[in-house]
Amino acid sequence: ANITEKKHFTEKEILKYYNNEEKAKKIAESAKTSIGADLKKEDLTPIKSLAERCIALKAQRTELENFLTEKTNEVMPNSSKLIGNVLAAKFLANAGSLRRLALMSSSTIQVLGAEKAFFSFLKTGSNPPKYGLLFQFPLVNQARPDLRGRLARTAADKLSIALKEDFFGKKDISKKLIDDMNARALDLSKQKVKVKRKKYKEELKKKEPKL
């Protein structure tokens, strides 16, 4: 857009560049009540240059995302449909090859990306990681905290099957995997929140009458 100066931010002018009447009206109203000062032309030049670079970067990102989507759909279609193109590409990049991913156990897939936490567990005996890259999967990170580990295990199981089919076979089994995974997530969500034993003892101690 080339509106630049605040006085030109009218609904009619905005609609020339942004085809959304409702938002154009809101932008115009915001411009009227804005406390921003009017800028000189020499001040606007670097601002406009930065805005143009941001737009170019956004266009480049969209282009790269389209390329990534095309390639992951071609190389690992079932996995991409199951967990999304971007996350599928991250798994592939972490493992180094589809063959290596396909030969991994579901338990390894579950903690892939959490190598530091896993080595810390082996070295210090701290709690083992329940998930690595899979935490970026909405089914896992948007779940109740007490269910995330089990949902990560479920997602890893289904992803393991999808990866094996992507490498060794060529059938589209993504719908069944997604349906099974969602059904399992629904069953888990109906379960009551489990109170940890230590926390339960602390709560019980608070309720004990003081002598």
Task: Give an overview in words.
The mean pLDDT is 86. The longest helix has 35 residues, at 41-75. The chain starts with 10 loop residues before the first helix and ends with a helix. The protein contains twelve helices and no strands. The chain is elongated, with a radius of gyration of 26 Å. The protein has helices at 11-14, 21-33, 41-75, 77-83, 85-95, 98-103, 106-111, 115-124, 138-141, 148-168, 174-189, 197-207. 19% of the residues are buried.
In N-to-C order, the SSE pattern is HHHHHHHHHHHH
> Considering DSSP H and I runs of 4 or more, what fraction of the residues is helical?
55-70%
Please report the distance between the alpha carbons of the first and last residues. Answer: 75 Å
Q: What is the general shape? A: elongated
Could you tell me the strand content as a percent range?
under 5%
Chain-averaged pLDDT: 86
| Major sheet | none
Radius of gyration: 26 Å
Low-pLDDT residue intervals, each spanning 5 or more residues: none
User: Structural class, judged by helices and strands?
Assistant: mainly alpha
Query: What is the number of helical segments per DSSP (H or I, 4+ residues)?
Result: 12
Total beta strand runs = 0
